[in-house]
Structures are given as C-alpha cells and as structure tokens.
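ENTRY TYPE: paired fold submission
RECORD: A
CONTENT: sequence, then structure tokens
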Amino acid sequence: WMDDFRRFLDEREEIFPVPEERFSRLFSEFMHTGRTSLNSADKYFWFEGNELKACFISFWLDVPRNASAAEILQRKQRWDSYLQAFNSVASLYTHGAVHTSELWVQAEVFGALFSSSVLTAGIVVVLGFASALLFTRNITLPFFVTLSALGSLSGL
C-alpha cells in the first residue's frame, strides 16, 4: 500500500513523505478513493474514529514452500531479531510491529508434531518391552517385540 500511496501523491503532485500537517487529509482521501493491489486501500488499516491505529504490510520472502522446517524457522528467527531491533528504537508511533506467516505456523506445527511423535514412540517401545517382560518373564520375547516395534516405527 505504501507504493500505491506514493503513486497517489505523485498524481496530485504532492511530495512523499507527506508533511505531518497534510498527512491526515491526504491519507483520508487515499483511503476513500485509492486502491492497493486488487483491494480497496482501507482493507490494510485499522482506525479508531479518524485516528489511524495500525496497518499491515505484506512482504514476499524467497523461501520455497517445500523448504525444511529448520530452514523456515531460521528465517523466522531472523525476522524476530529484525523486529526486536526495530521495536527497540521505534518511535512512540511506530513501535509494536509484529509479523506472522502461514509458513511459520506450518513449520512450528511440524516441529511440535515430530517431537511429540518421537516421545510417543519411545513410550510405546518402553511400555511394550516392560509389558512383554512382565507377562512372559523371558528377556528374549520382549527384545524381539521391541525390535519389531522399532522396525515398524522406522518405516514411518
């Protein structure tokens, strides 16, 4: 929306960035008549009354959708660090920036599912071994049950 606002100002022979005393009027005009991508400009902003409280900006990163969860989370960490640094020096009007992405969520869910699956598999193997040992009182059978379970799990 920022580039669209700049074009909107260029068409009216206004300067960018807009001087503070003219920002509200010009921005309000952009909100009601300007377009951003395929959407009306007002889809990108949150107002309370006539006061702009927040906005969102979309960024496209060069991260393949099939990248590993570790690579995706590494990129997320870089954004976390960048926004932490940005917010630490941001003015009263621009602090509180956050970021989100479906890709971040998918990578975190995958990591959580993987770790809980490994934990569950470990519990199943230990309980299977202990149960077979308890009921058969023979070390050979639980050993083979455990090997069989590990073989099945390794195929997953």
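RECORD: B
CONTENT: sequence, then structure tokens
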Amino acid sequence: MLANTRTLQVEFGHCDPSGIVFNPHYFVWFDFSVHALLGRAGLTLKSMIDEFGIDGIPLVDNQARFKAPSRWGDDIVIESRIAAVHRSAFEIRHLVRNGDTIAVECSETRVWTAFDPEQGRIRAKPLPPRIVALLSGAAPGA
C-alpha cells in the first residue's frame, strides 16, 4: 500500500499554555500528510478534479489516540499509509513518532465524491481503477 513519511519541528505556536501540542494541530498535519501521501503517487487534488471530475475527497471519519505529548522544539515524524481501499472510499493510518515514542495514532476515511445533478448534491462515486491501483501500490508511481 502507498506510504509516505514527513518530519516537522513543533513550533511555539503549535503549543498550548502548558507547552504541549494543542491537539487540533495534529489534524491539520494529518490533512497535509494525506496530500503528501497522494503526491507520492503523482496525484494532487487539482489533478484528480481535472481528470475525474470529482468534487473532492472529504473526510468522513477520523479517530485519534493521543498517547504521549510532543513539545515545542521536538522533531516529530508523521508516517502515513493507505490502510484499505474500498469501492468509493479509502482509509489512511497516521502514526506520529517523537523519537522512539509513538505520540499519536490516527485513522481516517476519505470518500471519492462528485456532484449528482439528479440528486442535487454531492454523492460517493466508485474509485476509478487507476486510483485504486495507485493507492494500493500496484501501479507505477505508487
């Protein structure tokens, strides 16, 4: 399955008054990490919108477990990988490491969506075979 790793340094503005990362920042980092993960396969949200006519890949489920704090100045590593690919959705797992410690575990589900004029709203659509292959790591560029 497709995977990506990125490193970032915790900055003062990421922290709450007690000096640890304010939890919502992790979710911003996870969103950026999803796009970096897709970039590993040569995909951008814009390219998917242009090529497949989708409206996006909205987040529909997100669960995080905060196991250890990260503090100002810490270098953390975010490991992101595709955990499962379904008919119209895919699951991503994020692991945040602070040194040898797992600080946060997160799972999220994103859905492949497009506007349905008959329904007058955005609806889940089947993932195209090429996207399935890229997310699964079975295609060149994955």
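NOTES ON RECORD B: Strands lie at 3-9, 59-66, 75-85, 89-98, 101-111, 113-116, 121-124. The chain has a mean pLDDT of 95.
STATUS: closed
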